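request received
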Amino acid sequence: MISATDLRLTFGKGTPLENPALRGMSLTVNQGEFVTVIGSNGAGKSTFLNALAGEVMVDSGQIIVDNQDVTRLPTHKRAARVARVFQDPLAGTCENLTIEENLALAIKRGQRRGLSGAVKKQYLERFRDSLSSLKLGLENRLGDKMGLLSGGQRQAVSLLMASLTPSSILLLDEHTAALDPKTAAFVLELTQKIIEEQKLTALMVTHSMKQALEVGSRTVMLHQGQVVFDIAGKEREGLEVKDLLGLFEQQRGLKVDDDSLLLG
Amino acid sequence: MLSEIAFYGALETGLIYGLVAFGIYISFRVLDFPDLTVDGSFPLGAAVAAMLIIHGWNPWIATGAAVLAGMAAGAVTALLNVKLKILNLLASILTMIALYSVNLRVMGRPNVALLTEETVLTPWYDLGLAFHQVPVLLFALVVLVALLLLWRFMKSEVGLAMRATGANPRMARAQGIATGAMIVLGVALSNGLVGLAGALFAQSQGAADVTMGVGVIVIGLASLIGGEALVTPSSVIRALIACVVGAIIYRLAIAFALNADVLGLQAQDLNLITAVLVTLAIVLPGVRNSVVGKLTRKKA
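response:
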């Protein structure tokens, strides 16, 4: 379980560029939930995810993961509990390292690292098994440099890396946004499969309202650094993009003018 | 032509600079941390080893102390960067400048002679080898051991974490790697190797001098870049071998240039030759690639 309470964060405080990114954001994600997060540009989606991961420190508020207060912990100390896939397919892996070395880094996520060999023989079978589930033929290319793979392949491997060791929450930051439509569909399908099979708790930021409704078990919309609505279960079933927009206007008394949300 | 003594001399210095190149490989290549501390940690290693030796310490223990001193210098640079958020290049320049004073303090004077002292080389002269071959043999062993240990380390869990830190720090943090600690460890390790090189250099040359560090960074980089041009560094072991090959070829090239009468070069032209060699080493791989590219395109 992960719970964020009244998170506040302002970038560039006291400067002309002052930008309040989070203005009292609160959200609790229960064990096994798959939450999709939508919101227009500047709604605070990425900042919220970065705050949960520890990449940015909030000004005030509290973040609790599995009953532990992690609000002041840096990224690497949260990594045992928080797994992450980035938007940029190049960001989640090291291109100069081989596929097996990248996986070996991930299998030790959040654990102590010692002086024993990183790529251990007993890992290899597991690496091959996981990679073969991608059906990309990567199981025979363990020694290849990551940089030789395409963006979609790298994103698929990033996803695999994030699910190699157990986590309390998996953060997905628009992880299909930088891919072509066909590859994006493949990675999204893979995401659903992995989350379902391993019963992961996940938070997926997306730019597409359609995707937000089709995937996952709960949808949260952010606006101006706050949660404007939060729907799950029966209420969410059969909901369409236009219903979401209606909900948003009803809540806020304003019109959505961000075309990308409508088109997505 | 090169005399036998000049040839072995170039090998000997080349091997020592191979250690420097290892250090620079760790900072510049593995960690992507441009570190100029080496211009200070090289004479620091020499000074520490020399002072301990003239005070009667075992030369190997003195050399070990030089490694630790170099590591401490590297750690200072890394901490200035990681904790105080000073730009890495500037942090290393600050340490380098500070070390000039430290080195004078350590020695108490600008240079210390070791000619009559027992050094790590002394017992090896009894083996019956020619005088100029002894340092080459010993330093080759030291370089080999360092190379194998480094290779093993870079393949370990911590070593892999260090390589990830330099290649993709955001990803490294997300994997639970304390990137700050990795930078401190890596830069310390790098300067420890340079301290070792300084200590061996002082013992083979018979003196430690406060100015002996000037330009070490350029020679180390020349060795690294030259080696990479000759041995494509597609894996850790190849990158490490490239360091040694580059350092030895560099010293041999310098020796040839100075010995070839037709060129009319003299010792004072050393730095000019270095700059030309570094430029060539940087430019040539690109030229080679474009030539190879043209050839393969014609074939296709």
